[in-house]
UniProtKB/TrEMBL annotation:
Residues 6-228 form the ABC transporter domain. GO terms for molecular function: ATP binding; ATP hydrolysis activity; ATPase-coupled transmembrane transporter activity. The keyword Transport applies. Gene3D superfamilies: P-loop containing nucleotide triphosphate hydrolases (3.40.50.300). GO terms for cellular component: ATP-binding cassette (ABC) transporter complex. It holds the Pfam family ABC_tran. This is ABC transporter ATPase. The keyword Ribosomal protein does not apply. Keywords: ATP-binding, Nucleotide-binding, Transport. Belongs to the ABC transporter superfamily.
Length: 228
C-alpha cells in the first residue's frame, strides 16, 4: 500500500463527439500500478487526468484528497509525469543545468544547486555526464535525466506514459530497476508487459473502459487472450 491515493469517480471524457473514456471508477492505493491496453484505448487520456493535463468532462479525479480540477497547481506538484520521448522534457543545454532548473525553486544558492545536481545525477547513474550537452546522451540516459529532473521536484506519485518506447532492452531493464528503487507511488502505462509484470495491480483498458483490474498474472493473461 502507498500513502497516496488516486480516485476516479464516474470519470468520462470525449474529444469532440468521440467518447474516449467512460464510467471510470477507480481507487488506486497500491504502490505500483501498471496500465495496459491497445493503441487508442484511452490509457494516456486516463493517465493525463491524474495531474490535470486533461480534465474529465464527467465525474471527478481526486489525488491525495484534492479534486484535480480545483487544485491543479498543488496536484501538479504532487504528481510527476514522464513521457515516452524524453526530448519533450529536457529543456536546458547541459545535463547538470537541466537538474539545476528543477532545483531552482528550492535551492537558491547557485554553488549549492550545482553540488546538489551532481549528487542527483550520481543517484540516477549519470555521474560524469554533468557538463555534457543533454542532446548527446543516449536514449536511455535521456530518459534517466528526464526522470531525475522530475523526481528532484519531490512528487509523491510518478506517472510514466510508455517510458520504454524509445529504449533498447538494456536501457529498458535499467529503467525497470531504477523504478523498482523509487519509494513514490508509480503508475506506468506500458506496451511492454514484462516491464509491469511484478507490479501490485494491473488495469486493462479497452474502448475507454477498464475491462480487467487484477494482480499481474491474471490481468496480463486476460489481456494477452483478448488481443489474440
Ligand atoms: N487531443 C486529442 N484530440 C482528439 N482526439 C484525441 C486526442 N488525444 C487522444 N485522442 C483520441 O482519444 C483516443 C484515446 O487516445 P489515448 O492517447 O488516450 O490512447 P492510448 O491508449 O494511450 O493509445 P496508445 O497506446 O496508442 O498511446 C484515441 O482514439 C485518440 O485518437
Amino acid at each position: 500500500m502507498s500513502d497516496t491515493t488516486i480516485v476516479f469517480d464516474g470519470v468520462g471524457h470525449s474529444f469532440g463527439d468521440r467518447r474516449v473514456l467512460d464510467g471510470i471508477d477507480l481507487d488506486l492505493t497500491e504502490r505500483r500500478i501498471g496500465i495496459v491496453g491497445a493503441n487508442g484505448s484511452g490509457k494516456s487520456t486516463l493517465a493525463r487526468m491524474i495531474n490535470g493535463l486533461i480534465m474529465p468532462d464527467t465525474g471527478t479525479v481526486t489525488v491525495n484528497g484534492l479534486d484535480v480540477r480545483k487544485n491543479k497547481r498543488k496536484v501538479r506538484r504532487d504528481v510527476g509525469f514522464i513521457f515516452s520521448d524524453p526530448d519533450r522534457q529536457i529543456i536546458m543545454p547541459t545535463v547538470a543545468e537541466d537538474i539545476e532548473l528543477s532545483l531552482s525553486r528550492t535551492v537558491k544558492d547557485r554553488t549549492e544547486r550545482h553540488t546538489r545536481a551532481l549528487s542527483v545525477l550520481s543517484g540516477f547513474g549519470l555521474d560524469g555526464h554533468a557538463d555534457q550537452p543533454a542532446h548527446q546522451l543516449s536514449g536511455g540516459q535521456k530518459q534517466l535525466l528526464a526522470l531525475a529532473s522530475v523526481m528532484v521536484l519531490g512528487p509523491s506519485i510518478l506517472v510514466a506514459d510508455e517510458p520504454t518506447t524509445m529504449l533498447d532492452l538494456r536501457n529498458s531493464l535499467m529503467l525497470r530497476d531504477v523504478f523498482a528503487g523509487l519509494d513514490e507511488q508509480l503508475v506506468v502505462l506500458s506496451h511492454d508487459l514484462d516491464f509491469v509484470a511484478d507490479y501490485d495491480r494491473i488495469l486493462v483498458i479497452d474502448g475507454g473502459r477498464v475491462i480487467a483490474d487484477d494482480e499481474p498474472s491474471s490481468a496480463l493473461t486476460y489481456y494477452r487472450k483478448s488481443m489474440s
